[in-house]
Amino acid sequence: MQQNKIKGTPGLGLLGTTLGFFFGFAAVSLYGPTAIKFKEAMELTPVMMGLLVAIPALSGSLLRIPFGAWVDTTGGKKPFLILLILSVIGLGGITILLNFTYPDKMHGLYGLILFLGFLSGAGIATFSVGIAQTSYWFPKKKQGVALGAYAGLGNLAPGLFSLILPFYLQSFGFISAYFAWFLFLLIGTIIYAVISQNAYYFQFRKRGKNDKESRTQAKELGQEMFPAGNVKDSLINSAKIKNTWALVALYFTTFGGFIGLTAWFPIYWSQFHDFSLTKAGLFTAIFSLLASAIRVYGGKLADKAGGEKVSLVSLLLVLVASIFLSYTQSVLIGFFSVILLAVGMGVNNAAVFKLVPDYVPKAIGGAAGWIGGLGAFGGFVIPPIMGAIANTYGKIGYAHGFFVFIVLAIFNLGIIVYLFRQHQRKTEMK
């Protein structure tokens, strides 16, 4: 009788988390394409612009750690909703601020805008919550496909809005865009609250059943993955596993890089190649959409070929693309290099989370928090560094900034070779 009250299916669970992450990530898609507007109103330097477009990634990365681990005790819906609400507050706040101060009264407000951008970035932090929430819905053999679909489709948000925003700005204006995005996020938060469900185990626990009973009945319904301990335990247990930190480094480069470049590319295309805002937005959208969409395929490929092999090839693509981008002034070569970069980053992002249940099976939420959080921290760190390089070298510095990814790719190739050898040794011992 009790089981009849249990709600949801794996498919519905995946739909809820994917939509929630899509709406949350959409909240920060404005910052990159509109950075030029802030530059004009407040006379920002390249470094200040880099920090402005990166600030949502700071909260979007750091909040992933505790909120991702929290899933192991709640199932995910509660921490997910809290993050979406924080993002609503941040985006609503900056919308009100712009309505009263843009463009002539914005001097001296840079710090406040950074703070509101920090709050808006909480929407990005839903990623680690959704990863763990989704993971508990699916068996091990389907983790790559499920997590690839979740992350790939959810990650489409910044690309889609990088494509739409320039046309919206031309038609309706700067402040109207922020108001529209605020309403979109608010509606999305309500939709997530209505349709999202936690996996069966957490529903049984909420109904007062003990751990053993909840596991038994959840297994009867098909659930395979279960948490081990509370939030603190999940973080500590996953942190003790050294391979968690190897996965953090891999994710820092490709997902942190993805977030950072989605915000940075409008600046790169407009300042280095003198593109219009609309054209820069279009080229940014191509990168973001491709990196997101191919992540779905990357999950399937990782299931079939193995996460380590797929990650190795992906990082080689990132390395080659970064070398070309660092030194070319050709739009054509730059464009095809960006395509290569998007493929490498998107596929590696899927491969990394395919490896999480293999390396950290008893603390998925904690691992997702560390990997998603510290990995996404790259989205905050990388744009200001690229801005500093541009500040130092002038216009050509916008190209030389990609040297950051050459260094990161080489370092990560060493890590994945280590993991690959470790995997081979385990296979031989079986």
From TrEMBL:
A single GO cellular-component term on record: membrane
Domain named Major facilitator superfamily (MFS) profile is located at 13-424
Q: Which GO terms describe its molecular function?
A: nitrate transmembrane transporter activity
Cellular location(s):
Membrane
Would the keyword Transmembrane be found if you checked this record's keyword annotation? Answer: yes
Which SUPFAM superfamilies does the UniProt entry name for this protein?
Answer: MFS general substrate transporter
Q: Single Gene Ontology BP term?
A: nitrate assimilation
The way it spans or sits in the membrane comes to: Multi-pass membrane protein
Lineage top rank: taxon = Bacteria
Q: Where are the transmembrane segments?
A: 12-32, 44-67, 79-102, 108-132, 144-169, 175-195, 245-268, 280-298, 310-327, 333-356, 368-390, 396-420
Sorted UniProt keywords: Membrane, Nitrate assimilation, Transmembrane, Transmembrane helix
One Pfam family cited in the UniProt record for this chain? MFS_1
Quick check: keyword Protein biosynthesis in the entry?
no
Family indicated by similarity:
Belongs to the major facilitator superfamily. Nitrate/nitrite porter (TC 2.A.1.8) family.
Protein name, UniProt field: MFS transporter
Naturally occurring in which organism (per UniProt): Ancylomarina longa
The lineage is: Bacteria, Pseudomonadati, Bacteroidota, Bacteroidia, Marinilabiliales
